[in-house]
Amino acid sequence: MRKLALLFIGTCLTLTATLTSAQRLGVTGGDGYIGGAALFWELDPDGGSSFEDTAFLFRFGNRINEYAALESRFGLGGSDSVNGEEFELDLLGSLFISPRLPLSDEFELYGLFGFSTIRGSVDDENGGLFGGGSTSTVSDTDISYGLGAAFRPTPELSIDVDYAVYLDESDYDFSGWAVGLTWYY
Q1: In CATH, what number does 2-184 get?
Q2: Rounded to 5 degrees, what angle do the CA atoms 131, 137, 139 make?
Q3: Disulfide: which of 19, 79, 110, 159 matches 88 by Cβ 3.0-4.6 Å?
Q4: pLDDT at 46 (0 to 100)
């Protein structure tokens, strides 16, 4: 978790320096964007206790037009233990088409439709959710969907909040709330 905090601080400092340099050069918000967010994820097995923690989420995208964007996401970190089972999120990767509904110059709603893959480590002494025993690596891919809102106090910066279901499997779901900042270049 300490490495995650250092990574988050470094990324925020880099984004701040880049934004300051871009403003000095007269660059305003454009079609491309990059951002970071805290992802409050939950792995919810059917009939079992949920695993929950926080990860860092990187967001990269490009606006196709005023009403759509293509976006990729990468999440790292977080682990939780429940009833002798431990799940650690090693990587979350997503690719989305994101329809946008601008309500004003400062506020827009957006959807997320695409697919995601997760990779995690499981220390599963009892057999449990993923079967087997001992420590193993699991990965899964599924269709993903979600909804969000963005507030843009400046043309270059937005504050984003969204909820996405990254995996919706028959025996478990992986979902999360993301809250973060996005810089448009």
Answers
A1: 2.40.160.20
A2: 90
A3: 79
A4: 81
- The token duo for 49 is 């206790």
Contacts of 138 (CB under 8 A, 6+ apart): 119, 120, 121, 122, 130
DSSP string over the chain: -HHHHHHHHHHHHHHHHHHHHHHHTT----SEEEEEEEEEEEEEETTSPPEEEEEEEEEEEEEEETTEEEEEEEEE--EEEETTEEEEEEEEEEEEEEEEEESSSSEEEEEEEEEEEEEEEEEETT-TTT-SSSEEEEEEEEEEEEEEEEEEEETTEEEEEEEEEEEE-SSEEEEEEEEEEEEE-
pLDDT reported for residue 100: 96
Annotated domain spans of the chain: 2-184
CB atoms within 10 A of CB 82: 16
**Phi, psi at 23, each rounded to 5°:** -65, -40
Would you say residue 143 has pLDDT above 70?
yes
How many residues in the chain? 185
